[in-house]
Amino acid sequence: NLRGVRERPDIAVITAERDRLQCLVQQLQMQVNETRRLLVVAESRAARLETGVLHARGHIQMLKERLADQW
User: Fold this and answer.
1) Coiled-coil ranges per the record (predicted)?
2) Is the pTM here over 0.90, yes or no?
């Protein structure tokens, strides 16, 4: 009775699927690395912007004080 016996998948099919999955894993790893790199760049830019904003606020406060002294 062969109805209950499943055919074993061909080794070539298994190997091809393994290779395909390994390739997908490598692509995902590259995307994760690129995303991490972009995150570091974005965090650096955000820090510079924050510093610039604080600097500008200091100038604004100084100008407000000068104007207040003049009036």
Assistant:
1) 11-45
2) no
